[in-house]
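TL;DR need C-alpha coordinates for one chain.
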Amino acid sequence: MIARKKRQEIYFFKKVVKIPIYGGNFIIIFSNNPGRVAKLVNVDENEIDPLYAHTFWNFLYRKYESFCVCFNFWSSDAVTTGTLVHEISHVGNRLLLSRDFDAGFINDEAESYLKGWMGDQIESFMKKCNIV
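>> reply
TL;DR here they are.
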Protein backbone atom coordinates (compact mmCIF):
# COMPACT_ATOMS: atom_id res chain seq x y z
CA MET A 1 0.00 0.00 0.00
CA ILE A 2 1.38 3.42 -0.99
CA ALA A 3 -1.26 5.63 0.65
CA ARG A 4 -0.32 8.77 2.50
CA LYS A 5 -2.23 10.39 5.33
CA LYS A 6 -4.90 12.76 4.09
CA ARG A 7 -3.55 16.31 4.10
CA GLN A 8 -5.33 19.60 4.35
CA GLU A 9 -2.86 21.43 2.12
CA ILE A 10 -3.12 21.49 -1.65
CA TYR A 11 -0.33 19.60 -3.43
CA PHE A 12 0.65 19.56 -7.07
CA PHE A 13 3.84 17.82 -8.22
CA LYS A 14 4.49 17.56 -11.97
CA LYS A 15 7.19 15.91 -14.06
CA VAL A 16 7.30 16.20 -17.86
CA VAL A 17 9.47 13.76 -19.80
CA LYS A 18 9.95 13.49 -23.54
CA ILE A 19 8.86 10.03 -24.70
CA PRO A 20 11.71 8.22 -26.45
CA ILE A 21 11.13 6.72 -29.92
CA TYR A 22 7.41 7.58 -30.06
CA GLY A 23 7.65 11.33 -29.33
CA GLY A 24 5.39 13.56 -27.28
CA ASN A 25 5.31 14.21 -23.56
CA PHE A 26 4.77 11.82 -20.69
CA ILE A 27 3.43 13.87 -17.79
CA ILE A 28 3.32 12.51 -14.26
CA ILE A 29 1.23 14.37 -11.69
CA PHE A 30 0.87 13.72 -7.98
CA SER A 31 -1.86 16.01 -6.70
CA ASN A 32 -4.94 16.46 -4.57
CA ASN A 33 -6.05 19.51 -6.61
CA PRO A 34 -8.56 18.50 -9.32
CA GLY A 35 -8.89 22.08 -10.60
CA ARG A 36 -5.22 22.46 -11.36
CA VAL A 37 -4.99 19.01 -12.94
CA ALA A 38 -8.09 19.69 -15.08
CA LYS A 39 -6.60 22.94 -16.36
CA LEU A 40 -3.31 21.26 -17.36
CA VAL A 41 -4.92 18.34 -19.20
CA ASN A 42 -7.80 20.39 -20.65
CA VAL A 43 -10.79 18.58 -19.13
CA ASP A 44 -13.73 19.69 -17.00
CA GLU A 45 -12.87 19.56 -13.31
CA ASN A 46 -16.14 17.74 -12.58
CA GLU A 47 -14.90 14.78 -14.65
CA ILE A 48 -12.04 14.12 -12.21
CA ASP A 49 -13.44 15.25 -8.87
CA PRO A 50 -12.83 13.39 -6.62
CA LEU A 51 -9.25 13.02 -7.74
CA TYR A 52 -7.74 9.56 -7.23
CA ALA A 53 -5.98 7.89 -10.20
CA HIS A 54 -6.53 9.04 -13.77
CA THR A 55 -5.07 8.83 -17.26
CA PHE A 56 -5.32 11.65 -19.80
CA TRP A 57 -4.35 11.77 -23.47
CA ASN A 58 -5.06 13.69 -26.66
CA PHE A 59 -4.11 17.13 -25.35
CA LEU A 60 -1.26 19.51 -26.07
CA TYR A 61 1.26 20.62 -23.47
CA ARG A 62 3.76 23.21 -24.68
CA LYS A 63 2.71 22.39 -28.27
CA TYR A 64 3.44 18.66 -27.96
CA GLU A 65 0.99 15.79 -27.92
CA SER A 66 0.85 14.60 -24.33
CA PHE A 67 -0.06 11.56 -22.28
CA CYS A 68 -0.54 11.89 -18.54
CA VAL A 69 -1.05 9.86 -15.40
CA CYS A 70 -2.20 11.45 -12.17
CA PHE A 71 -2.26 9.96 -8.70
CA ASN A 72 -3.58 11.40 -5.45
CA PHE A 73 -1.54 9.67 -2.76
CA TRP A 74 -3.40 11.75 -0.16
CA SER A 75 -6.82 10.33 -1.05
CA SER A 76 -8.76 8.25 1.45
CA ASP A 77 -8.45 5.40 -1.07
CA ALA A 78 -4.97 3.89 -1.10
CA VAL A 79 -2.95 4.10 -4.30
CA THR A 80 -1.49 0.61 -4.59
CA THR A 81 1.01 -0.97 -6.94
CA GLY A 82 -1.99 -2.39 -8.79
CA THR A 83 -3.36 1.15 -9.23
CA LEU A 84 -0.05 2.29 -10.69
CA VAL A 85 0.08 -0.66 -13.12
CA HIS A 86 -3.56 -0.08 -14.09
CA GLU A 87 -2.93 3.56 -15.11
CA ILE A 88 0.38 2.71 -16.81
CA SER A 89 -1.50 0.16 -18.90
CA HIS A 90 -4.06 2.79 -19.93
CA VAL A 91 -1.54 5.47 -20.83
CA GLY A 92 0.77 3.06 -22.65
CA ASN A 93 -2.11 1.65 -24.68
CA ARG A 94 -3.31 5.15 -25.64
CA LEU A 95 0.19 6.10 -26.76
CA LEU A 96 0.64 2.97 -28.86
CA LEU A 97 -2.82 3.35 -30.43
CA SER A 98 -2.04 6.95 -31.35
CA ARG A 99 1.05 5.69 -33.20
CA ASP A 100 -0.91 2.97 -35.03
CA PHE A 101 1.19 0.37 -33.25
CA ASP A 102 -0.45 -3.04 -33.24
CA ALA A 103 0.64 -4.70 -30.01
CA GLY A 104 -0.47 -8.21 -29.19
CA PHE A 105 0.32 -11.18 -27.01
CA ILE A 106 3.00 -12.39 -29.43
CA ASN A 107 4.28 -8.93 -30.46
CA ASP A 108 4.50 -7.33 -27.01
CA GLU A 109 8.17 -6.47 -26.56
CA ALA A 110 7.87 -2.80 -27.57
CA GLU A 111 4.78 -2.42 -25.38
CA SER A 112 6.56 -4.02 -22.43
CA TYR A 113 9.62 -1.76 -22.78
CA LEU A 114 7.42 1.36 -23.06
CA LYS A 115 5.34 0.50 -20.00
CA GLY A 116 8.45 -0.50 -18.04
CA TRP A 117 10.02 2.87 -18.91
CA MET A 118 6.85 4.65 -17.76
CA GLY A 119 6.90 2.70 -14.49
CA ASP A 120 10.54 3.66 -13.91
CA GLN A 121 9.73 7.33 -14.55
CA ILE A 122 6.87 7.22 -12.04
CA GLU A 123 8.97 5.42 -9.42
CA SER A 124 11.83 7.91 -9.82
CA PHE A 125 9.43 10.83 -9.37
CA MET A 126 7.83 9.17 -6.34
CA LYS A 127 11.26 8.96 -4.73
CA LYS A 128 12.00 12.59 -5.55
CA CYS A 129 8.68 13.65 -3.98
CA ASN A 130 9.33 11.44 -0.89
CA ILE A 131 6.33 9.23 -1.58
CA VAL A 132 8.30 5.98 -1.33
